[in-house]
Amino acid sequence: MSEKPEIPAPSPVTTPAPVTTPAPVTPPAPVTSPAFVLVRPQMGENIGAAARAMLNFGLDRMRIVGPRDGWPNPKAVAMASGAGRVLDAAQIYDDLPAALADCEYVFATTARSRELAKPVLSPERAMAEARALSRAGKRVAVLFGPERAGLENDDVARANAIITVPVNPEFASLNLGQSVLLTAYEWRRSGGEVVHEVKANTDFASQVEVEKLADHYEQRLEEAGFFYPETKAPGMKQVLRNMWTRLELTRSDVQRLHGLLRQLLRDR
Questions:
Q1: Where are the domains of the chain?
Q2: Is 86 exposed, middle or buried (0-12, 13-18, 19+ CB in 10 A)?
Q3: CA 223 to CA 228: how far, in whole Å?
Q4: Residues contacting residue 75 through CB under 8 Å, at least 6 positions apart
Q5: Is 63 exposed, middle or buried (0-12, 13-18, 19+ CB in 10 A)?
Q6: pLDDT tens-digit series, residues 124-154
């Protein structure tokens, strides 16, 4: 009797491993460079030097408030030496509140000690902070004062923080071009550094919203006779405005503070 041939057992069916598609990589949000705001600059040559320093380090958002010799200025163009496009795109304003209306965080550069209570940072630290804010989508500005005496206290009161360069105390004065150059260099250098995380959904109030809040409180306090004696009123108002900017208010904060004041007046 012949043997039947063996039938091989069927091979086990294997299920192919699922193909995983890597999650799409979200590119980092573009960083908007800070606006460099020249406040009441006096000499066209210094404006041109500032433009040249800015473009050296990839900055081109210049704003000019009340230039003494008017605008445009041929001396600024001559001194810019190839950075004329920064001057061409410069935005000109009559006053500082208008220049800062869309900004959410403002640094003020000054060599002098101030009575105004604000964080005081080196250019290195300040520009690292500025980059963190910009990465979170916030609009940042840096103020530079006129050549002769720098920013006035009313100007500094509109800022959230102060930038001071650690220079020789016996000869602390920097000209406008030098100050812009140092700050622009630190901005460029801060490219890989994150000092702290700023939440993207932190909806900071703009400068114009903070200004309106300050005006609201100032008006009501004036009506209540708070600013007394009259000789001290300007200083008291300046301290209050400085307080509002130092608080880093969100839009929700501003709305609540407006509502709080209205409710207090309604209950009188």
A1: 35-190, 207-265
A2: buried
A3: 11
A4: 43, 44, 45, 48, 69
A5: buried
A6: 999 999 999 999 999 999 999 998 889 999 9
Which of 69, 83, 86, 94 minimizes the C-alpha distance to 35? 86
CATH class of the 35-190 domain in this structure: alpha beta
- Locus of tokens 């000109």: 92
CA-CA-CA-CA dihedral for 184, 101, 120, 190, to nearest 10: -30
User: Which residue, among 258, 151, 255, has the nearest Cα to 205 in the 3D structure?
Assistant: 255
Beta strands 91-93 and 105-109 are unpaired
Torsion-angle region of 26 (φ positive above 0: left; ψ -120 to 50: alpha; else: beta)? beta
Establish whether the linkage from the previous residue to 10 is cis, with ω within 30° of 0: no
pTM of the predicted model as reported, rounded to 2 decimal places: 0.73
Lowest-pLDDT range of 19-33, 88-102, 105-119 = 19-33
Q: Which two tokens stand for residue 118?
A: 């604000």
Q: How far is CA 229 from the centre of its chain?
A: 35
- The two three-digit tokens of residue 18, written as one number: 């699922």
Helix (H), strand (E), coil (C) string for the chain: CCCCCCCCCCCCCCCCCCCCCCCCCCCCCCCCCCEEEEECCCCHHHHHHHHHHHHHCCCCCEEEECCCCCCCCHHHHHHHCCCHHHHHHCEEECCHHHHCCCCCEEEEECCCCCCCCCCEECHHHHHHHHHHHHHCCCCEEEEECCCCCCCCHHHHCCCCEEECCCCCCCCCCCCHHHHHHHHHHHHHHHHHCCCCCCCCCCCECCHHHHHHHHHHHHHHHHHCCCCCCHHHHHHHHHHHHHHHHHCCCEHHHHHHHHHHHHHHHHCC
Distance (Å, whole) CA 151 – CA 162: 11
**Residue 14: is its pLDDT beyond 90?**
no
